[in-house]
Design a protein that fits this description.
Largest sheet: 4 strands, antiparallel
Oligomer: single chain
Number of helices: 16
Structural class: alpha+beta
Number of strands: 12
Shape: globular
Radius of gyration: 20 Å
Helix content: 40-55%
Strand content: 5-15%
Length: 389
């Protein structure tokens, strides 16, 4: 197990190290409750509801191939005896095999790319078949969502040590780098026109930044690619410069000029997992060390300014060991996501417009009481993983 990241955190901040260990223990405890043994997969979410008797309970909803694959990617860093309780007795490698066998029925490019990435990382013998499925779904010249295009690049990067994937790898790399708008360091929501309505084509989310910068950093780590590393570094520098005073990783950005469109909701997974794993991968690939930003973001999990009462005490905790979850996000509670819609439309023609009165009318303080498996999968990946150049 690679404990370098945790070890470095222990040296920097003992309290945050204890928080990370607490979250990792919660991930191991919570994931078995999200596994469906009969279906051999993971739920889409566990949502907090009130039972007919008035007791708060968690309700399982749906299933998710991509969340299952992300869980395998993270859990593989655990010792095998601690992997098995997460997958109904299987190791992460064995569970990945189940996902690979189901790939012929997978029709979503992102799902297939994540399964292929997990197959590459676990050394599955049918990795080439998994990549063939990715290729079948990734039609040349067709725009893709940026997150899914980034996962394709990460999968091919992980596979290049054992298979000749240089041609599709070069195409995936070029597509991601070409997706940026002008000189902006940020990535848009899609790699080309057609997937996003024109009035919001400039709006990109936090995931549209972290997954590409992670993929490009890992690409450089697998074989020198200074251009890819520079793009990853520039993206990371921008989102870190925009990070909130309380360590918040904001949600919606203007991909044209690199500013924040709307900060909320703030997602727990961004704070404890997605930002750390992308920024760790960047530093380990030879890019800038944004460790201070990682620590600020992690600290938000235990010190959420949006949930503080007038005396500074928390009205609610985001970490809930009693339910085996971390609550998903803090948001404004505005009807039909009105603030995001208004700012998205306004910034289309006035990039720096803030509509400041909306911040006073719709203050963030509502909690989304659900938790999804990928939140714990990426947490394990972030803090137990490591990129070797």
């Amino acid at each position: 197990m690679n404990t370098t990241r945790l070890g470095a955190l222990a040296q920097e901040d003992g309290a945050l190290h204890a928080l990370a260990e607490r979250l990792l223990a919660l991930a191991e405890a919570g994931l078995p409750q999200m596994y469906l043994p009969e279906a051999e997969t993971f739920v889409f979410t566990r949502a907090g509801v009130v039972s007919p008797g008035g007791t708060p309970v968690l309700e399982q909803r749906g299933t998710s191939t991509r969340y299952a694959a992300i869980t395998a990617l993270g859990a593989r860093f655990l010792p095998e005896d601690r992997q098995r309780p997460l997958f109904g007795g299987r190791t992460a490698e064995e569970f990945t095999g189940v996902l690979v066998e189901r790939l012929p029925g997978v029709t979503n490019l992102g799902d297939a790319a994540l399964v292929a990435w997990a197959a590459a990382e676990t050394g599955h013998p049918k990795l080439s078949d998994a990549l063939d499925r990715v290729a079948a779904l990734d039609v040349p010249g067709r725009p893709q969502y940026t997150v899914e295009a980034a996962w394709v690049l990460s999968a091919l990067t992980a596979a290049r040590a054992v298979l000749d994937v240089e041609e599709p790898l070069a195409a995936a790399r070029a597509r991601l780098l070409a997706a940026r708008v002008g000189d902006s360091p940020l990535f848009p929501h899609a790699t080309g026109p057609g997937l996003v309505p024109g009035y919001r084509s400039h709006v990109a989310c936090f995931a549209d930044q972290t997954y590409p910068l992670q993929a490009l950093a890992r690409l450089h780590a697998s074989g020198d690619d200074p251009e890819a590393l520079a793009a990853a570094d520039a993206c990371a520098a921008r989102i870190c410069a925009l990070q909130g005073d309380g360590g918040q990783w904001w949600w919606h950005y203007d991909a044209r000029e690199g500013g924040v469109i709307e900060g909320y909701p703030v997602y727990s997974v961004h704070q404890h997992a997605m930002a750390p794993t992308a920024l760790f991968d960047l530093a380990e690939a030879g890019g800038t060390d944004f460790g201070a930003a990682i620590r600020r973001g992690l600290r938000w999990m235990a010190d959420v300014p949006e949930l503080a009462d007038p005396t500074g005490n928390p009205r609610e905790q985001m970490i809930r060991e009693d339910f085996g979850v971390t609550w998903r996000k803090v948001y404004r509670g505005d009807p039909k996501k009105a603030v995001r819609a208004a700012r998205g439309l306004t910034t289309r023609v006035a990039p720096h417009a803030r509509l400041a009165p909306l911040d006073r009318i719709f203050r963030p303080g509502a909690v989304d009481r659900e938790c999804r498996p990928y939140e714990f999968g990426w947490m394990l990946f972030a803090w137990l993983g490591g990129t070797q150049r």
